[in-house]
Amino acid sequence: MIHFVVLFSRQGKIRLQKWYEARPDREKKKITRELTNAILARKPKMSNFLEWKELQIVYKRYASLFFLFAVDKSDNELITLELIHRYVEVLDKYFGSVCELDIIFNFEKAYFILDELILGGELQETSKKAVIKQIEFADNYQEEEIISLALRDVGLI
Amino acid sequence: MALEAQEKVMDFMNNARQMMTEAVDRVKMPTPMRLRDLIRAIRAARTAADERAVVNKECSQIRNSFATEDTMWRCRNVAKLLYIHMLGYPAHFGQMECLKLIASSKFTDKRIGYLAAMLLLDEQQEVHLLINNCLKVDLNCPTQFVVGLALCTLGSIASIEMARDLAPEVEKLLKSSNAYIRKKAALCAFKIIRKVPELMEMFLPASRSLLSEKNHGVLITGIVLITEMSERSPDTLNHFKKVVPNLVRILKNLIMSGYSPEHDVNGISDPFLQIKILRLLRILGKDDSDTSETMNDILAQVATNTETSKNVGNAILYETVLSIMDIQSESGLRVLAVNILGRFLLNNDKNIRYVALNTLLKTVNIDANAVQRHRATVLDCLKDPDISIKRRAMELCFALTNTQNFKIMSKELISFLQAAEPEFKAQCSSAMVLSAERFAPNKRCHIDTLFDVLKTAGNYVRDDVVYNTIQLISAEMADLQPYVVHESWKAIRDTENCTEKQPLTQVSCWCIGEYGAFLLDGISVDGENLTVSEEEVILVYQKILDATHMSLVTKQYALVSVTKLSTRFPRATPKIEKIVSSFGSNVQIDLQQRGVEFKQLFDSFDHLRTALLEPMPPLERDSVMTHLDAAESDPIPSNDEGQEVNLLGDMCFTDSKVMADPLANVGNGQTNGHTVAGGGLFDLLDSQPSMDLGTNVIMDHNKTNNTLLDLLGNLDACPPSNESPSLNAENDLSNSLFGPSALGSTHLPSQNSMDLFNDSSPVVASSESMTVLSENGIKLIFEFCHGPAKDLELKITVKLVNNTEKDVSSFEFHVALPKSMQLMMPKINGGIVIGANEEKNINVITIKNPNAAVLRLRLRVSYRFQDISTPFNHQVEVNDFPAAMCSW
């Protein structure tokens, strides 16, 4: 099971964090600080895995952004890398060649996409297409709602 | 018609009016900054202080907006708050607002509201009760997106209560006709079961039908759910064994089916699903040969047919190998699996090498021989620059070491130790010691390895290595001691900077001190003839003792050792005497004390020196280890104590338990039972507060006898047969010296010293007592009914004595113990009152010491004299309990 996901920049700034288990805020902060430091200190040629307490950390860098997934020790590290890649692919498709700024300015979208891909710490959809489709559906639904509310506001419907 | 038109006009007018008022309202209260603009503003901040200013300003506006119940901008404000929260600023004040958003009818609001709930709330929050109701409503909503949001939130932040409350809803959704909802419900069920396992049964029927799905999303979530249930309950595990053929079929279809663009990853069809199936198969097939049988073929197929040029393929192979090794698979299949790992080890990709090492480590217990074949490759991985890989490789190397390959492995591991990062050195050296103990083919090889470890790991060596080595040399290397002492000599002679290899120096000093006589004999080691002159040894000692950065412990070892050498090196004795006496004025109080005391051995008690400085009897392993454990488990080890423990290995046994051993061996009637009490005496010499006492006594009383006691206390290593006559002779004197009157207010257990020197009457002090506090004529005395019982409990009666002419009131006392112990003390309401010249028992306390740690406590006392209004407060530490009463 995935325990938490953190996206952070090369400067160690958190860009997204998602927790699938309850921890107090202060502890979350401590963990992210500790892990970002540990990973930023690693050299690019090292493996993408890190043991950390009772969990293992699988991380990968895409351009200026690090994607970190904390999974159980019994989980398959290699497929977790694929899972990270899947998330990046979906982001890429959604934003159209995604970059760090897209995620900064549209962080809520990045969360929505992650929530469509992973639920409760487990992968819920293995089809890339389906994830994108569902996000787009939800976006459209939201847009239609906004338009219809606006129209209702001005009394056109 | 005209009426209708009129109505329309009226409507239009009304709307226009409403829009006008709204517009005016908006002008009155400025539109809050957009999220995008806030992010820009924050990113534009040049310094952390600037950023903080922007955030604080925005936060206060958001707060205001929240306070005025502004619904129009609530969504935007919460979104901004989420960004601020991500930057690490507090955002708890938005918690109620996200609930309001969730309760809104608008999807936009709900989307942000639920997102905020997942980020800002966690299980501990009380707002959960409120969110529960929203979730219940939304789970029954007809819109799939709203249900999806609710399920997602439940999956993220489900608490135990939530899980119980909403499980029926989730179970209903698990049977929904909509795949989008079914898959989410399956994962929610997974989460609920993790929280409240007893809810499992409710989901059993629905979960099985998930396996007949076509939709991969539902399939994979269903498999995750079934895996979780099977891992949690053996009954469910048996129940699901029936689905193995279904799983095999699904897996087969995945491998056999051609290219399906939707689920393809680098030419492999849905690796995520494949891996979840392989994992479930592993759990179902474990320890069950029939079930294993049904999956043998498919595992073989996956293992042979998977394309391995890409990471995905290897991910599947990795999972397959784990399954093959875990179930009751055919031997051929196992060979195949280990070969796959062998190929992994040679892979260029570090991740795959890491995984291979990890898996080999798991399988080494199952099939050690198969793993042995890859030893060379594993050894290569020790040189990998990646810490994760290196650590795995190191662990695997230790797992692979056996008697046959010990020499090769230890050589490699020593060179690894040499180059390794500091974080590895301690762990590796301790593991080497254990490994040598188990697998070294002979004693010589064993001791050589230990010296190699000490030499290469320098100061990173843990203390346990020092103890273990000394104990080993003392107890098990009797025939090798001449060799060891020469090795020790070479080690300290050739080490340029002993401060960087202090553990080595300590062991070497100990050996030379004990067996220094062999040094002069000369020995031929590996064709090299060694002869050592007394002068050069003493020179090296001088160097060690003078080194500024040498730790106190090392110097203690060296000083004791050089003193011992005075009887082994007859010609160097004057020189040694000079060194020892030079410590009489050392700034380190412990060394100074040793200097002063040892000096006596050269002056007034020269005749006792030879006997006192005899080599130690073989150290017993357990006693050393126990003491070490005790020291480690002690939650507040003071500096002094730690050193006391370290010294254990050299010559004075501070601990009564350890001390009892060599003495009891002699079977001398006098030692029987009573010597144990001597621990208190040694305290006199070993810890600082009592040191003062020692010197005081020297001033006041008959000098010779006292110093003799000092020496005996410190150097109990001499054979008891020598010791006893002199002890008996001092009987009376010791009584008077340590009698209660002489001791007055000190912490020294008076009875103690007498015990050691009294005749052999078997009255084990049935009620020992010690004065723990004596101030202003008020005395607090601890009386021990008996030593610690079998259940490690010690009962102490607390007696209060008032020697003054005044009444004392409001007497209160508090006791604090180290964390490892428990205190039971009946509470006394109100302060105790005690009249002039009265004494009474005020309480009985019980101390439980489950870890048998060294007993210490801190005492706080307050009281008032009748005629003085200000209370007196005292705080004392009591750590010199009578040994007999606390030898756990």
Automatic annotation (TrEMBL), chain A:
UniProt topology in membrane: Peripheral membrane protein
Signal peptide feature range: none
GO CC terms, sorted: AP-1 adaptor complex; clathrin-coated pit
Keyword Protein transport: yes
AP complex mu/sigma subunit domain location: 1-140
Cell compartments where the protein resides: Cytoplasmic vesicle membrane; Golgi apparatus; Membrane, Clathrin-coated pit
Pfam family, one: Clat_adaptor_s
GO process annotations (BP): intracellular protein transport
Keywords tagged on the record: Coated pit, Cytoplasmic vesicle, Golgi apparatus, Membrane, Protein transport, Transport
GO molecular function terms noted in the UniProt entry: clathrin adaptor activity
Principal localisation: membrane
Subunit description: Adaptor protein complex 1 (AP-1) is a heterotetramer composed of two large adaptins (gamma-type subunit AP1G1 and beta-type subunit AP1B1), a medium adaptin (mu-type subunit AP1M1 or AP1M2) and a small adaptin (sigma-type subunit AP1S1 or AP1S2 or AP1S3).
Similarity annotation: Belongs to the adaptor complexes small subunit family.
Protein name, as recorded: AP complex subunit sigma
Organism: Tigriopus californicus (Marine copepod)
Taxonomic lineage from the root: Eukaryota, Metazoa, Ecdysozoa, Arthropoda, Crustacea
Automatic annotation (TrEMBL), chain B:
Residue stretches making up the GAE domain: 765-882
Family note: Belongs to the adaptor complexes large subunit family.
Keywords: Cytoplasmic vesicle, Golgi apparatus, Membrane, Protein transport, Transport
Membrane topology listed for this record: Peripheral membrane protein
Pfam families: Adaptin_N, Alpha_adaptinC2
Organism for this UniProt entry: Tigriopus californicus (Marine copepod)
Protein name: AP-1 complex subunit gamma
InterPro entries xrefs: Adaptor_Complx_Large_Subunit (IPR050840), AP1_complex_gsu (IPR017107), ARM-like (IPR011989), ARM-type_fold (IPR016024), Clathrin/coatomer_adapt-like_N (IPR002553), Clathrin_a/b/g-adaptin_app_Ig (IPR008152), Clathrin_app_Ig-like_sf (IPR013041), GAE_dom (IPR008153)
Lineage: Eukaryota, Metazoa, Ecdysozoa, Arthropoda, Crustacea
GO BP annotation list: intracellular protein transport; vesicle-mediated transport
TM segment ranges: none
Localization of this protein: Cytoplasmic vesicle membrane; Endomembrane system; Golgi apparatus
GO cellular component labels: AP-1 adaptor complex
